[in-house]
Design a protein that fits this description.
Mean pLDDT: 78
Shape: elongated
Strand content: 5-15%
CATH superfamily of the largest domain: Ribonuclease H-like superfamily/Ribonuclease H
Low-confidence stretches: 1-21, 137-148
CATH class of the largest domain: Alpha Beta
Radius of gyration: 32 Å
Helix content: 40-55%
Distance between the termini: 18 Å
Strand order of the largest sheet: 5-4-3-6-7
Length: 465
Amino acid sequence: MRHKKNYAWLTGEIYAFESEPETVESARVIDNFLCTCRNQEIKMTIKAACRLFSMPRATYYAWKNRLVNGALTQREKEDRALRELILKIVQSLTYIPGKRPMTDLLLKRFGFVVSRERVARVMKELGLEASSTRRKDAYKGQLMNLHFCCAVTNYVKQDFYIGCRSIVLTDITYIPYGLQKENFAYLCTYIDAFTKEVLGWAVQSHMTEELAREAWDKMMNKHEQEFPKNAQVYFHSDQGCQYLSEGYKSLFSGNYIQSMSRRGNSWDNSPQESFFGRMKNRIGSHFQMFKTVEQVRKAIEIYIQEANTKVPQDVLGGLTPQLFYQYRMTGVYPKEQYFEIPAAELYSLEEVIEENRRRAQKAAAIRSAKRKDYSQAGNNEKRDALSVVRKDIIKLYRRIRQLKRQASDLKILIEKAEALMEQALQAEKYLLECKEKLLEEFNECIGWDQIPQLSYVARFHEVFR
């Protein structure tokens, strides 16, 4: 429904009826408008009122019928129940999921089967806007520290799916907090690349080697027994100075091997970068309320706990990271039946997960090829002085034409406003000269367009539309 203002001349002043995006609110406005017209003995049909507010008559009659009979359709009852379930999910989380994860959560928590489009519509009616992932290169504009020859070899090479606890990704990100976001906290995490589970994390007010070591100690205290003893375990990071320090390198011995991304390449550590991006978009707006690092640490602790135990992921077959790890270790399905169908008759979760990862790798390869083509095209492009100047001329010509068009429209609008100003001044002079009895008749504000001295009001909306 289009969002627009409609004006009607009613008792004593101009009432502006604004049609709401919601059908119920718009129908209620039309009904109130018709009642006002009847009270003022103004002829107004339902057809004309619906046309005035851009609403189909069938929609208005349906709303009126429900209002009289007090009955809701089956779809309206389902929508009402869906709203309550969505609000429960949002209240239980620290962020607003998108339509896809919301659909999965409705199914897993309440067994409510619904389409993604319907979930998106209901969320829009509730005014819920999903927290979307930022599409930004985390390394863009980053300053390079130390010499690139100091870096460790990249053993992972974007092959993140070797097995559980075989590849652990780590990185450090900054979190601005405070009323003016003048303070900074720094978060270091260790994430299992295969299960997406956060194994260890730490928050401090300074980005030092101690921050990475504290997160390492938390990870080892809780998950050291889970790392394979007969295979190599790779701990992958970027080329930050914290990970290049001698103190941090001393942590690696035996099966533990350090690996590093290529210089300035965020794709080599993409699962870790994605985790930071989702976290900042989902709970980043709350950081402005925090006063201390301890408050930031508490919020991140709750978010990580939810991410590990409550939030299902498509790449894990709709399981949470902890459930997926238990499934991989025990081979026991989380459910014996799906939609009353035995799990043994369905594709296994491993097949589903493998297919999702194959598609993700194929999409990443396509993106990489496109970036390479664009880069080569940009390098091969001829950039002589004459071609640069000619491009500038084309841009300026388009901009001048656009500004001239806007200036022409403004000139016409100014002329209309000035003409109406002259007529309004004449109307003021006319009313001052009128007798008191005649002046009282004009106070009704009805039929002004029939009086030459006051007829300017019929064109008043042309200036303020």
